[in-house]
Structures are given as structure tokens and as C-alpha cells.
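Side project, low priority. Logging it here so it doesn't get lost.
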Amino acid sequence: MQNEASARNQSAIFQEERAKEDRDNKAEIYIKFLDAANNYASVAHLLYTCTSELAEESSGQTFTVDGDCAKLAIDLRASWREFQTARNSVYFFGSEEAERKARVLAAYLPDATSAGQLPGDIFDLGSFNFDMFSGLYRDFQRVACMELPANPRKSC
């Protein structure tokens, strides 16, 4: 009986340690995802602002990027790669709910694979609403708030 109780106790301790390790791993992944998403959205917003006059002058949202906006287009590609790496980590190691929220957020952000590398390249940013992004960002934060602490607060 004592050995059985000791084995149950050890099993409970192991499960508790494993759950903490899982939360710690997810915390690192989720925080990197949120940071990368915020950086990517910020660069996209800056590029959208920088090029808004060009977009208004052209038909639709396709225009030529040059000057100061060209550096932002290059920065957007770099931040997109960082975001994609973080998104992949959520896909492989996050919960189903986190992966779903990450997918929704990623689908909203512009696709930087069309970003120009050189002045004069064509770049299509599409429409970007920073407020919409902020709502999707908070949705992912809520998932993290529920999953990461051992005892999530009620306001999550």
C-alpha cells in the first residue's frame, strides 16, 4: 500500500513537472510569436502609411516602391520571415486553439513575398487595418493567458 501511494505521488509530481515544462516551452513560443506578429504588423503599417499617397494616385493598391518606402519593403520581408518562423513554432508546439488563432492572425497580415527588394520593384500591400490586427492579436493573447499560467486568472 505504501509503495502504491508513493508511486502515485511520484507520478503526480512527474505530471506536474511535465505540465510546467510544457507551459514554459509554450510561453517562449507564444511570446516570440506575439513579438514577431507585432513587429511585422508595425512595419506593414509604416509601409502602408509611407505608400498611401502612391496608392491613392494609382488604380487599386499596386504601386512602385522607391525612396524611403523601399527600405520599409525590405524590412517587411525580413520581419515576415521572422513571423513565419514564429508561426511555424506555434503550429508544431502550440495548442490547437493557439494554432487556430495564429492562422487567423496570419491570414489577415499582408503577404510579404510580393514585397519589392529594390527601388522600383512592384509591391502590393493590399488593405491593412491596424485596429483589426490589434483585435486578432488580443485574441491570441487570451489563448496564451488561459494556457500559460498554472492557474489562469478569471479575466483571461
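Brief comment: Residues 2-147 form one domain.
Revisit when time allows.
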